[in-house]
């Protein structure tokens, strides 16, 4: 009897192990709707930007919650974030991305033509400026951003707006922004929780957040503005490098 029981246990073991290793079928079906290819990589966040597993994410959806999604279908990657109760697209939750957090994957059109992805900026530090066309502080920071880009060719610089191409191009022409500009970034700004402008973020060479300044305020003196910005970047780089050790 004991021998038969042992054989039965061994016969069932591979099946049980296989079942345990199989991803949740509900999640498989959900991820399939995102059209991310054969090997999708999906991250889930709650409305405060904290990581969730799929089960907790699905429970939030059952409470009539909606979500924002930033993705790069070519890379098979997406980040989904639950929206605050009653909010809709364009009403971001709290900005909560800190040092070491993975920046959301994205694929956005550029005023230079073509599509830019997060992976295009890997290998070097990247300074990201979030703006919109009627933002007065965004207009005021343009000379400082241009000066930084001229002085730091070793750093990628990219400006992102939730607006359309015409609005983005108008801002560039009216205020002389020399950066690479991406538009239609609403899903990205919602997922990040960017609701105050301008917002600056520094990404490390691996696409993780090295530092951020939300609703930043720079000195009125042009030279001091650049010095302030360079000081922030240097501090963020140093802290990021220290955390990586």
Give the structure's gist in a few sentences.
By secondary structure, this protein is α/β, with parallel strands linked by helices. It has seven helices and eleven strands.
Explain what this protein looks like in three dimensions.
This protein is α/β, with parallel strands linked by helices and 245 residues long. It has a domain at 98-244: Glutaredoxin (3-Layer(aba) Sandwich). Helices cover 38% and strands 20% of the residues. It has helices spanning 2-21, 25-32, 54-62, 136-151, 165-175, 186-192, 222-244; strands at 41-45, 51-52, 67-72, 77-82, 107-109, 115-117, 126-130, 156-160, 180-182, 199-203, 209-214. The strands form three sheets. A five-stranded mixed β-sheet has the order 9-8-7-10-11. Strands 2-1-4-3 form a four-stranded mixed β-sheet. Strands 5-6 form a two-stranded antiparallel sheet. Helix 4 crosses helix 7. The protein starts with a helix and ends with a helix. The relative contact order is 0.14. Residues 1-22 have low confidence and may be disordered.
Major β-sheet strand ordering: 9-8-7-10-11
Write the CATH architecture name of the domain at 98-244. Answer: 3-Layer(aba) Sandwich
Please state the CA-atom Rg, rounded to the nearest Å: 22 Å
Q: Element order, helices and strands? A: HHEEHEEEEEHEHEHEEH
CATH superfamily descriptor of the domain at 98-244: Glutaredoxin
Helix content: 25-40%
Distance between the termini: 57 Å
What CATH first level of the domain at 98-244 would be assigned? Alpha Beta
Number of helices: 7
- Any low-confidence stretches, pLDDT <50, length ≥5? 1-22
Q: Sketch the major β-sheet.
A: 5 strands, mixed
CATH topology of the domain at 98-244: Glutaredoxin
How many distinct beta strands?
Answer: 11
Domain Thioredoxin: 97-238
Pfam families: AhpC-TSA (PF00578)
Keywords: Signal
Signal peptide: 1-20
